[in-house]
Amino acid sequence: MDKKEKILQAALKLFITVGFDGTSTSKIAAQADVSNGTLFHYFKTKEELINKLFLKAKNDYREYILNNMKSSKNTKGKIFEFWSACLEWIFNNPESIAFYDMFSSSPYIDKLTIEEASRGFDLVDQMIMEGIENESLTDAPVELISGYIYASINSFKYYKQNNPDQADEYKELAFKMLWRSIANF
Amino acid sequence: MDKKEKILQAALKLFITVGFDGTSTSKIAAQADVSNGTLFHYFKTKEELINKLFLKAKNDYREYILNNMKSSKNTKGKIFEFWSACLEWIFNNPESIAFYDMFSSSPYIDKLTIEEASRGFDLVDQMIMEGIENESLTDAPVELISGYIYASINSFKYYKQNNPDQADEYKELAFKMLWRSIANF
DNA sequence: GTCTATAAGCTGATAGAC
DNA sequence: GTCTATCAGCTTATAGAC
Fold it and tell me: Would you tell me how many other CB atoms lie within 10 Å of the CB of residue A111?
């Protein structure tokens, strides 16, 4: 693995355990088995490092989703695929998610990064608009529906974190609850 | 206002704008019009200060909720009251919420504080258990339902932040969507 | 690309006068 | 309770050799 990648990985681990403040660049460098100077060769500032890390997490996430939903044809199936893929990624990448939760509303992540990170998730909006048009989804603002989808994902994530053993048996129910709230009956 | 309160207010403002790291104790003291020594008289460490602030935010929130829901008798009404009260508080106290979002998953907030903060919100669990018993709520795990309620609140919060003008006209719909997902039909 | 050496500046926290 | 004065230690970042 090249040093740049090692630095990013070390930083991720440290940031989520001791925060941005608690993580000095020298600690990152030490953990990555790299000199302090090398760190500043790859990243002009500590802030640039954290912003790059943020974008990387978002892109990995997005890519996983895009690669894991292409079979379903109707709206309900598509949304279920999206919902499932998100949860799969979340549970296979707990560190990235912890990092994202911790820093998404942090002043260290600048506006440009957030904007760039949010781009590309518009496939959700597209699914929803399609669903409203073909009358399988309730006629509500797209953002309200997408918000509910994300909310359901988040809610199930917390549930599974607190009840790792029972969660899977309630997965279908959790999606059914989401679907009931956004479907057009 | 006494100096302790002034320190807490100054700290809140600084923390949400420039983060924990960016906010030095001397800046807090300066902003609060108080000497550095005085700050350390009231709070043994910087960490203690942020933990106290976190508890204060949570308690203010809880108190507002408790004082704003006592009239409804059936489950749907109670949950709507809770849902509304949460959103009201959120929009009247944006700084506290920003602070909470920023630090709820932060290593500066210790486990004891989080535990103490989460206590007292069990009125939600109570409402839900009541609702499941009298068959107005779907028979799902309490945590799954409560999670969905919190998620719905969060979702509408984001919607209103991005669409401040249209949000109010969709408030009823947003609650209806929540209710459809957790009600027993 | 990678390292070592280096430093100015700020940090949280203390001590002690009033 | 509140202040001033003070500090040891660590911080991010740079410069320059290899």
Answer: 7
Distance between CA atoms of residues B123 and B141, nearest Å: 16
| B152/A151 touch (CB, cutoff 8 Å), yes or no | yes
> Burial, A76: exposed, middle or buried (Cβ in 10 Å; 0-12, 13-18, 19+)?
middle
A48 residue type, one letter? E
Show the tokens assigned to B162.
């991005």
In this prediction, residues A32-36 reach a mean pLDDT of 96
CB B54 within 8 A of CB B43: no
Instruction: Name B63's Cβ contacts closer than 8 Å, sequence gap at least 6.
Output: none
Q: pLDDT per residue over B31-80, tens digit each?
A: 999 999 999 999 999 999 999 999 999 999 999 999 998 888 899 999 99
Cα–Cα distance measured from residue A150 to residue A155, given in angstroms and rounded to the nearest whole number: 8
* Under 8 Å between Cβ of A71 and A85: no
Tell me the whole-structure pTM to 2 decimals.
0.92
DSSP helix/strand/coil, A108:
coil
Chain A residues with CB-CB distance to B155 below 8 A: 144, 147-148, 150-151
User: Angle, to 10 degrees, between the axis of helix A171-182 and the axis of helix B171-182?
Assistant: 150
Q: Is the pLDDT of residue B183 over 80?
A: yes
A-chain residues near B140 (CB < 8 A) = 170, 173, 177
Q: Please give the structure tokens belonging to residue A119.
A: 């781009």
- Position B1 pLDDT exceeds 80: no
- Picking from B69, B23, B87, B73, the residue whose alpha carbon sits closest to that of residue B50 is B23
Nearest-10 Cα torsion for B152, B154, B155, B161: 140
